[in-house]
Amino acid sequence: MAMNRIPGRNIYVGGVIAVKNKSALSKANITHILSVLRINQPDETFGPFHHHCIDVDDVGDENLLEHIPTAVKFIQSGLDAGGSVLIHCAMGKSRSAAICIAYLLHRQPSVLTPQSALEIIRQGRPLCEPNDGFMEQLSIYHQMGCPDNVTDHPLYNRWLYHREVEGSVACGRAPELNSVLFEDEQPHMHQESTERVTEIKCRKCRLVFCPQHSAIRRVKAKTLQPS
């Protein structure tokens, strides 16, 4: 089917073809459409609907995390207004399912996991299967506690850091880390002491050569006085 309803919720997941089936959209009381793909369709296609687009490709290293809070807010606004929401990508399999998982996690962070949320979605649309990279990001989002602000969270910045480094290594270039917060530039989670954190880093690229847990603090030996 072009789109399927998530059990117990006025949320539908589908492919891009679902947008063209106006009668089905009307029958499902769709008022909000969330597109999760790099779309190239005229605005009049979404004329009578509230529409929001997330420009992402279906690849594992695409940054889906940064878009989750806006997507969740958009979905909730449609439901609060008494309508139904269609979340679609190209095939209704990976990107749209990932965003739907994020919404379910945000609503029940202490009850659901990314996998259990996916199983709920599959009850309505069995073909849903986000790529491994998106599932990893959803796991990080869940570890954060599904916050309204993702980009200021230490876990997000750590993930962004590793993503940038891995991309740089693959391309054989130095990392471009101007937008990344480092360990000495961000608040630490669960820090129990005010002791200064020491790490050995490259002065140019700021890459950590020796993390704190691998460093041995040098203690100056006391000189023993002869008795």
Give descriptors for this structure.
two-stranded antiparallel ribbon, 6 helices, protein-tyrosine-phosphatase, about 230 residues
- The helix content is 25-40%
- Contiguous runs where pLDDT drops below 50 for at least 5 residues: 188-197
For the largest sheet, list the strands in their spatial order. 1-2-5-3-4
CATH class of the largest domain: Alpha Beta
Domain Tyrosine-protein phosphatase: 2-147
InterPro entries: Dual-sp_phosphatase_cat-dom, Prot-tyrosine_phosphatase-like, Tyr_Pase_AS, Tyr_Pase_dom, TYR_PHOSPHATASE_DUAL_dom
Family: Belongs to the protein-tyrosine phosphatase family. Non-receptor class dual specificity subfamily.
EC number: 3.1.3.48
Structure description:
The chain has helices spanning 22-27, 68-80, 95-107, 114-124, 132-144, 154-171, and strands at 3-5, 11-14, 30-36, 50-54, 84-88, 200-201, 208-210. By secondary structure, the protein is of the alpha/beta class. The chain folds into 2 domains: 3-144, Protein-Tyrosine Phosphatase, Chain A (Alpha-Beta Complex); 154-214, no CATH class. A 5-stranded mixed sheet has the order 1-2-5-3-4. Strand 6 and strand 7 form a beta hairpin. InterPro entries: Dual-sp_phosphatase_cat-dom, Prot-tyrosine_phosphatase-like, Tyr_Pase_AS, Tyr_Pase_dom, TYR_PHOSPHATASE_DUAL_dom. GO terms for molecular function: protein tyrosine phosphatase activity; protein tyrosine/serine/threonine phosphatase activity. Keywords: Hydrolase, Protein phosphatase.
